[in-house]
Amino acid sequence: MLNHEQEIMARHFAGMTGVTMEERFCPQRLAAGRLGQPVAEKARWPASKARLARCKPIGTHLVYLVEIRNITLSPQGHGLIYFKRRFHPVMMEMEVAV
């Protein structure tokens, strides 16, 4: 999951800005994670390990259902989702000790 401030990167990766497939995976945008996966700097979930459980065709897309085996969360930033043809921040509430 990308950080809420990474909408431009999300738009590039989704092909919304006209970048080529090679440019979407260019080294300046992504680094190798601890598990060897491509990682975006400042991503909300910079590292995870998952197993592909199912791949289901829905309309013109393939939906990959995965089982998350391990995940590392970044303590900074909020998430970013795509819903109803727009990107939206997923704001995290901070826990406050009373």
TrEMBL record:
The EC designation for this entry is 1.5.1.36
Question: What Gene3D superfamilies does its record include?
Answer: Electron Transport, Fmn-binding Protein, Chain A
Classification via InterPro entries: Flavin_Rdtase-like_dom (IPR002563), Split_barrel_FMN-bd (IPR012349)
Using the record's annotation, list all stretches that form the Flavin reductase like domain: 1-90
Oxidoreductase listed as a keyword: yes
Q: Which GO terms describe its molecular function?
A: flavin reductase (NADH) activity; FMN binding; monooxygenase activity
Transmembrane stretches in the record are: none
Keyword Oxidoreductase carried by entry: yes
Tell me which UniProt keywords the record has, alphabetically.
Monooxygenase, Oxidoreductase
Q: Which protein, by its recorded name, is this?
A: 4-hydroxyphenylacetate 3-monooxygenase
Organism name = Klebsiella pneumoniae
Q: Upper lineage ranks? A: Bacteria, Pseudomonadati, Pseudomonadota, Gammaproteobacteria, Enterobacterales
Q: Which gene encodes it?
A: hpaC
